[in-house]
């Protein structure tokens, strides 16, 4: 009865046959109240005349396999680039052994949402992105990549996969916002937390192979369209000599630009402590976290009328541990640890030496702090106090801001807003925790906030 062809971003049609029946059952049996809310889109499900249907059995059998828990050792086990052809193929095959299972797990989790939720156009777009990505990898299933031509084609598929899922967070946020009547917030938070943490790992696996491919290019593929990186401090996506101060300054400029557009003022910042500190970390992760924390600090500073007070950012390097007392990242430690997974293989290669000191970054603003009423909610996805013109300043929407979402994911494409999605803190924390760090918020209500970002270093490279 319920059947709607789900359309992928490339316009292909898929039929999630069992999806319709299973999820309908879940929806109406487990959440009886949903029966009173028919699908807002009135979708009907039908068999699409498509040859690109993923057999439901394929998804089911992949989703029934345990997800391999990613460890840092996995990311660096193929050695430092440029990789030999054999090491590059081995990295490709390793990537291939992980990704289809991970995508199938995500598809499975999406299918387990109430049917009315996954039939929301935004959520179904995300669902279709996953189906589409899995369909592009399935031709490689049970194959071994052992020549350059296949490796190049596979890397192109990975690049497309990364691109397809690049700006999906506003879409997901909008979807859940539109469905908030039909699903309880605890279920949303549980789903999003697992989904977004899994997404971090999946992107990391794909991006690591792409980066290794790119930095091995001069030896492998003279016709490559990728720019080879000459930066020798990189092992794939990990920069072994990342300077947080550099990232803070570039993110500071970016967020200041947004403030100028939004409020007409450019807040300033000061870096003190140990600005020369370097450590091994994934730059795009640090960029994401710092951007979100600076958005919050700058917004609070401007909205409380304290734009003249600089945000003070203190960088503290963790002291090197005395001999025999490791303070370092355990390379075999698994990274995405909140879903049922098997334990990681024992790494035979450890291209990083101990110790691996971490870094703590404190972001101190004079933006008035967070009221006790707001404080308990700041870690919930979609919670925001950001208000647009049509809301009174300071009014708590508490469930995501549709106008801010319109600005972020409107038809004109992605635009950055200073706030409003309510994902900055919870997602920033998910990134920090991925490598064993964390975020702590200390509010001095009436004065300002201290936000502590702790990051575990990934180690020093072995020469
Ligand atoms: P968003 O910024 O989209 O609202 P976040 O998850 O980044 O979502 O933050 C959630 C809420 O936490 C903000 O809306 C704000 O009320 C509060 N908050 C976070 N950081 C600060 C800060 N430095 N000063 C004051 N309030 C803050
Ligand atoms: Mg924010």
Give a short synopsis of this structure:
The chain is α+β, with helices and mostly antiparallel strands. The chain has helices at residues 17-30, 56-63, 72-76, 85-111, 115-118, 121-137, 148-164, 169-178, 185-215, 217-220, 244-263, 283-303, 402-409, 424-434; strands at residues 6-7, 13-14, 67-68, 234-235, 238-242, 269-273, 279-281, 311-317, 341-342, 352-353, 359-365, 438-444, 448-455, 460-461. The longest helix has 31 residues, at 185-215.
Percent helix range: 40-55%
Strand order of the largest sheet: 6-8-11-13-12
Count of strand segments: 14
Residue fraction in strands: 5-15%
What's the mean pLDDT score? 79
Number of helices in the DSSP assignment:
14
Molecules bound to protein: adenosine-5'-diphosphate, magnesium ion
Question: Can you tag this structure with a few keywords?
Answer:
463 residues, alpha+beta, five-stranded mixed beta sheet, three-stranded antiparallel beta sheet, 43% helix, disordered N terminus, binds adenosine-5'-diphosphate, binds magnesium ion
Molecular structure report:
With 463 residues, the chain is an alpha+beta fold. The protein has 14 helices and 14 strands. The chain has helices spanning 17-30, 56-63, 72-76, 85-111, 115-118, 121-137, 148-164, 169-178, 185-215, 217-220, 244-263, 283-303, 402-409, 424-434, and strands at 6-7, 13-14, 67-68, 234-235, 238-242, 269-273, 279-281, 311-317, 341-342, 352-353, 359-365, 438-444, 448-455, 460-461. The strands form five sheets. A five-stranded mixed β-sheet has the order 6-8-11-13-12, covered by helices on one side. A hairpin with a 3-residue loop joins strand 12 (438-444) and strand 13 (448-455). Helix 4 (85-111) packs antiparallel against helix 6, helix 6 packs antiparallel against helix 7 (148-164) and helix 12 runs antiparallel to helix 14 (424-434). The N and C termini lie far apart (63 Å). The relative contact order is 0.12.
């Amino acid at each position: 009865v319920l059947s709607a062809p789900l359309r992928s971003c490339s316009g292909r049609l898929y039929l999630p046959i069992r999806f319709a029946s299973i999820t309908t059952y879940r929806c109406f049996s487990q959440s009886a109240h949903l029966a009173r809310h028919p699908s807002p889109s009135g979708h009907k499900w039908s068999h699409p005349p498509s040859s690109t249907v993923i057999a439901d059995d394929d998804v089911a059998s992949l989703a029934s396999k345990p997800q391999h828990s990613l460890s840092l050792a996995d990311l660096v086990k193929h050695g430092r680039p440029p990789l030999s052809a054999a090491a590059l193929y081995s990295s490709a095959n390793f990537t291939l052994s992980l990704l289809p299972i991970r995508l199938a797990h995500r598809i499975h989790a999406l299918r387990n949402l109430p049917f009315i939720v996954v039939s929301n156009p935004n959520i179904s777009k995300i669902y279709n992105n996953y189906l589409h990505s899995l369909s592009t990898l399935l031709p490689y299933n049970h194959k071994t990549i052992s020549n350059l031509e296949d490796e190049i084609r596979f890397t192109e598929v990975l690049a497309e996969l990364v691109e397809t899922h690049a700006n999906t967070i506003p879409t997901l946020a909008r979807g859940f916002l539109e469905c908030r009547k039909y699903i309880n917030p605890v279920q949303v938070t549980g789903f999003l937390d697992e989904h977004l943490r899994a997404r971090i790992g999946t992107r990391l696996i794909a991006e690591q192979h792409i980066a290794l491919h790119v930095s091995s290019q001069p030896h492998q593929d003279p016709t490559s369209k990728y720019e080879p990186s000459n930066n020798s401090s990189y092992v794939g996506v990990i920069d072994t000599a990342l300077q947080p101060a550099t990232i803070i300054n570039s993110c500071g400029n970016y967020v200041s630009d947004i403030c100028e557009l939004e409020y007409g003022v450019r807040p300033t910042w000061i870096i003190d402590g140990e600005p020369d500190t370097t450590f091994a970390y994934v730059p795009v992760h640090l960029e994401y976290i710092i951007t979100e924390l600076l958005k919050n600090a700058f917004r609070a500073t401007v909205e409380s009328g304290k734009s003249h007070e600089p945000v003070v950012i203190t960088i503290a390097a963790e002291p090197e541990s005395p001999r025999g007392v490791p303070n370092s990242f355990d390379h075999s430690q698994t990274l995405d640890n909140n879903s049922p997974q098997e334990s990681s293989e024992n790494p035979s290669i450890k291209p990083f030496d101990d110790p691996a000191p971490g870094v703590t970054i404190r972001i101190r603003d004079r933006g008035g702090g967070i009221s006790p009423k707001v404080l308990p909610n700041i870690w919930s996805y979609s919670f925001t106090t950001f208000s647009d013109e049509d809301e009174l300043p300071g009014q708590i929407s508490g469930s995501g801001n549709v106008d801010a979402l319109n600005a972020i994911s409107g038809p004109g494409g992605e635009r950055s807003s200073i706030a409003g999605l309510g994902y900055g803190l919870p997602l920033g924390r998910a990134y920090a925790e991925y490598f064993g760090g964390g975020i702590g918020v200390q509010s001095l209500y009436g004065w300002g906030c201290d936000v502590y970002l702790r990051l575990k270093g990934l180690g020093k490279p072995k020469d």
